[in-house]
């Protein structure tokens, strides 16, 4: 049963506190923190309604819808057909407000947009080949996305991926064979995980189709990657 209203606010506050604690603890303690973090994430659910999101961010419903329409805040379509905001997106926005001198969601969005545009393409687009390998656009976008994730990969992002994978297993969103494969990968060193998720190979492409790293980049970074890939393919 997902919580709403005041209970959701308290649960989201707990998620944010636990994420701050997790930054400065050792691997053993991080596992304990992640267990509690998963509990609160399950309590809230994978998405929040637009009304709930607006309340949590302290903005009007109209402002939220405007940013959604402009592509500044991501939405997902729930099984019931409602447009809702991913919990990770809301937490990221709240953390950005709490961890800096930004005074409004508008400030955060402007900064995210500016920072995304400043990312050099060579950080995520694979090098051009003298004899180009043929990629479908979706495959190239997935590769570019994971190349950028790899640039900032750390234990916290890997922990997030593990917990996301576990949620997918409980809800039946991933084939058990691929889940088992990803569990093995996520137990490896960060360097090895980085190598696997950026491998431009048949296995790498197959793994990225069920990757537990969505949400590792913010909305503007995802748009930056998608646009750069489209421009390369068109060129």
Give the integer mean of the pLDDT values. 91
**Unreliable parts:** none
Strand content: under 5%
Task: Tell me the number of strands.
Answer: 3
Strand arrangement within the widest β-sheet reads 1-3-2
The largest pleated sheet is described as:
3 strands, antiparallel
What is the straight-line distance between the termini? Answer: 49 Å
Which value, in Å, is the CA radius of gyration?
A: 18 Å
Report the order of strands and helices.
HHEHHEEHHHHHHHH
Q: Could you say which structural class the secondary elements and strand pairing correspond to? A: mainly alpha
Count of helical stretches: 12
Keywords:
globular, mainly alpha, 3% strand, 12 helices, 64% helix, 235 residues
How are the secondary structure elements laid out?
Blueprint: H1 6-22, H2 27-44, E1 47-48, H3 50-57, H4 61-69, E2 76-77, E3 83-86, H5 87-98, H6 105-117, H7 137-151, H8 155-171, H9 176-186, H10 190-197, H11 202-208, H12 219-234
Antiparallel strand pairs: 1-3, 2-3
Helix pairs in contact: 1-2, 2-8, 3-4, 6-12, 7-10, 7-12, 8-9
């Amino acid at each position: 049963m997902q919580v709403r209203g005041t209970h959701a606010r308290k649960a989201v506050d707990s998620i944010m506190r636990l994420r701050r604690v997790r930054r400065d603890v050792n691997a053993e303690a991080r596992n304990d923190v992640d267990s509690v973090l998963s509990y609160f994430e399950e309590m809230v659910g994978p998405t929040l309604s637009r009304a709930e999101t607006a309340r949590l961010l302290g903005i009007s419903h109209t402002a939220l819808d405007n940013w959604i329409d402009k592509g500044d805040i991501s939405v997902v379509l729930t099984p019931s057909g409602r447009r809702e905001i991913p919990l990770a997106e809301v937490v990221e926005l709240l953390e950005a407000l709490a961890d800096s001198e930004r005074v409004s969601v508008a400030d955060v969005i402007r900064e995210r947009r500016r920072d995304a545009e400043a990312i050099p393409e060579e950080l995520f687009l694979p090098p051009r080949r003298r004899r180009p390998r043929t990629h479908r656009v979706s495959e190239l976008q997935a590769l570019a996305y994971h190349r950028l994730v790899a640039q900032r990969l750390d234990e916290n992002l890997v922990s997030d991926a593990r917990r996301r994978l576990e949620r997918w297993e409980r809800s039946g969103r991933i084939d058990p064979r691929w889940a088992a494969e990803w569990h093995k990968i996520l137990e490896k060193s960060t360097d090895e995980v980085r190598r696997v998720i950026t491998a431009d190979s048949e296995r790498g492409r197959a793994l990225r189709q069920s990757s537990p790293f969505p949400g590792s980049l913010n909305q503007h970074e995802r748009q930056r990657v998608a646009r750069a890939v489209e421009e390369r393919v068109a060129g």
